[in-house]
Amino acid sequence: MKEIKPYQVLAFVAGVLLVMSPIVYFAPEKGYDLGFMKLNFLTAEDFLHPAKPEKKDISKIVANIDTSSLDINVDPMLRHQNGSQGNMGAPSGGTMNTESNTEIILNDAAKSQLYQLFSKLDKAASDKKKIHILHYGDSQIEGDRMTAYIRQRIQNQFGGNGPGLIPAMNVYHTNTFKQTYSENFKRFTCFGGDKLKNKKYGVMGSAARFTADSDSLLKNSGTTVEAWIEFEPNKSAYSRAKEYNNVTMYYNSCVKPCMLKVYQNGSLIHEDSLSTDGKSHEFHLSFPNTPGKLKYVFSSTYSPTISGFSLEGDYGVQVSNIGMRGSSGTIFGSMDQTLLSKMYGDLNTELVIMQFGGNSVPAFKDSSGVRNYTRYFKGQLNTLRKLRPAAAIVVIGPSDMSTPDNGNFVTYPLLPYLVEQMKKSTLEAGCAYWDLYSAMGGQNSMPSWVEAGLAAKDYIHFSPKGASIASQMFFDAFAAEYSKWKQGK
Description:
Structural class: alpha+beta
CATH class of the largest domain: Alpha Beta
Number of helices: 12
CATH topology of the largest domain: Rossmann fold
Strand order of the largest sheet: 3-21-18-17-4-16
Oligomer: single chain
CATH superfamily of the largest domain: SGNH hydrolase
Radius of gyration: 26 Å
Helix content: 25-40%
CATH architecture of the largest domain: 3-Layer(aba) Sandwich
């Protein structure tokens, strides 16, 4: 191999600079359009006098956000003796903030729905009833980010235990629970990846099977397949989430005999067979206290569809995290409406939080793209209203998001317009809106959150600390509105 001399490297670099200098120096402001591609360079002015990044002062925004109040803390078949005494779920008490730096934006229709929710929350513990809150969102909430904090605050105040719904197959890291499953389980989702032909995902929009969705040969064969799902609380979870004593499995499309064995901390506690009528069913077990590690072992020639599990106390509020990476939130029409409506009712769903919009921002080319998206998003809100008329709906708008621009990170150009249009569409649908973008500080606030360690260096997602601050701001606005209702009551 021929040795390259230092002067040859220097000559090569000098040659490249000599050729590129006039191209860069005389580059037009919008770059060179070659027809099949565009080349952008810093202009001479930008190179010689680079623009200084605009920095938002967020010190006053985050300084008054108090997140310290949370603690981290055979023959015959064997039948489990359900052991709950019905006493898990009492609230911790305490007071909620009556003032907030931000507000939940409401019209009369949204206020009516939200105030009905407050009335039900107020009586959940005393009446020993269960209420479910579903928090749908994109990657900003995946792995229980934001939801975990909101859940702890709500359960402390109104009662409830456990993380609520967890997916049959969890693919995101979460501090709330641990889950493993056999390799032959396959994940199906309504928002990306493999799809179920009958669209029967359930309210989480995802499900799992251990045989193919349409494997007719296996369905009619005598070959028995075994598969398992195992989960347990995570020690790093918030205290309310890691304590539960009621476990419900949701399944459907079981058309062949399926045996189920349940193990608690390695010991077999229950044997059963699932219903083979193909309809939606629940399989419920209760315990005197948190059961620890539970393993569900299935044996069948053809898999049922497992829609998820719910881990709950005896009464109070369950708050479920339903993260959908890459989703724009326009997914409800791609799920079986009958099953959705039934599950919303069975869960006694009284609040749906929708946190979407961010995934669409980089794709917007002009304002018409924004308006098209928000019209479609409004249609999703209307679908939810039809599926569960009694539930309140709160939309959490997208956060600030940054894109590189001449060496600086700036807000995506169409993001402020998206926030405006999402707010408008949400109110038109009779739903409430909380403006996360403005709560953060508005335009070009994300770089300041990144600099303070409150957001990741992708300039999109919150860090754990930032997520807790954003969640506390939302809860403060929620609590302030609750206080108005309480005083007016």
